[in-house]
Structure formats: C-alpha cells, structure tokens
Give the backbone structure.
Amino acid sequence: MLREILASHDGVMRTRTLLESGVSKHRVACAVSAGRLLRIRRGWVASPQADPALVFAARSGLMLSCLTQARRLGIWVREADPGHFAVPRPGAEVRPDGARLHYGKPLIPRDPFTLVDRVENVLGIIAHCQPREDAVAAWDSALNRNLVDRAALERLPLDGTARTVLAQTTPFADSGLESYVRLRLRWLRLRIVWQPWLYGHRVDFLIGERLVLQIDGSHHAGRQRTSDISHDAVLRLRGYSVLRVGYEQVMFRWPEVQTLVMEAVAQGLHLA
C-alpha cells in the first residue's frame, strides 16, 4: 500500500498526505528506519528511487517550472538552464545557488504543495523570462506535441506579452529551429510555407514557388540524412533549388543563412 501511494505521487509527498491516505505514523517511522522511505524535509518524505529534481523541489519549498519543467515535458528549450522554479509559498522557499525563482501570479491557480507546474503556467512564465523568439519556439513545441490546446490558451488571462507570443505561434513547427527560421524570414514578405509535402516527403520551408530551405538538426545523420539527400536530388531534377543549413548556422551564424536566402531570392530561384 505504501509503495502504491508513493508511486501515485511520483515518489515524493507530504507526510500529512501520506497519513491521510491511511498509512499510520508507526508504519512511516518503520519505513524510514528500514531505508524504504527518506525524510527530505520537515513534513516531506520520498522513496529512495524518487526523481532527484522532485526531491530537490520539495526540499527547497519550490515548484519545477519555466525552462526546467519545459525540458522535462520535452518542450524545445534553447540551452541548458541553471534551474527555474516557481515559488508557490513565498517565505517558505530556499533559494538555490544560481537558480532563477519566479514569484508572479500563475495563469491557472496552483496547489501550494504541488512540485511541478502546469504546462500553461510554464508557458506563461517563459513568455516573460525568455527572449521573444525563444518563447515562441517553446510555445510552438508545446502546441506541436499536443501538450496544450491553442483555443484553451486564448481563453486564459494572458497579458500583452504572452498574447504577442501566442499570436506568433504555430502547431506545425517540428523543431525549435523551424520556429527561429520562420520568425527571422518574415521580413522578406514572400510566400513562405513550412512543412509542405513535395514529391513524397515533407520539406521544412518552401519560399515562393521553387526555393526549398531545409534545416538539419544537431543529430541529423545516418539513414535520415541519406534519405534527405536523395530527396534533394529529386527536387532539383524537378526544377527546385534546395538550400540546406545546419543547427550551428541557424543558432550561432544566422547572418550566413540570411545571406544565402537573400542571394537565392535575388537570383529569382524562388520563382516558378
């Protein structure tokens, strides 16, 4: 019974909640003595196998949120973060070295003793914590993974900053790289379609009628790369021009990518 109750709380929970679930104080004490249960803070216990991130949050009086929880959910995050936490009970928190704590009012009310934030609150914090294109990439990723519904987001009490981010999102971006490229090429004022289907495969971007821009992720290799190279050849034989750039170029050498696209457009390679 004890193991099942702990598992339903991801291995970390308040002692009070455990007692209210029908586990006696004596049994809790015996489990602690036997090493089957750890006292991590006054009023909190955890199984030895519990997620260290949850144990840390409970010990610090914090809630996993912003970039930290986004990464746990598989949402695109640009770089490693030092730890981002919401503070559900101001005054009870311990500030970890190098961590970033968020005290703002959540979009959706929180249970003050929950250790992980809701995805809607995570996105709301990211909208204010991160640069605009990083925030859009994260929101794109959450929508693409069906972690949140756009219509539901629109009904939330978003402020101007969050609504601006939402207005620039799409659920069709397969990676954060595509989000950055989409935002950075808007100024061209050309017809740009992302993820169109061309001759048996999707491509990342079709600019105008004939210019294809492909974005290779940091792990683009092996069978996938061979398939993409073959498809590039098919497109060229049918009159398309293909530009292929990588993760490092998009994230750290963007002027090179922009110059390639501008020169291709100047040469009319986007025209039918």
Summary: Residues 133 and 234 are 33 Å apart (CA to CA).
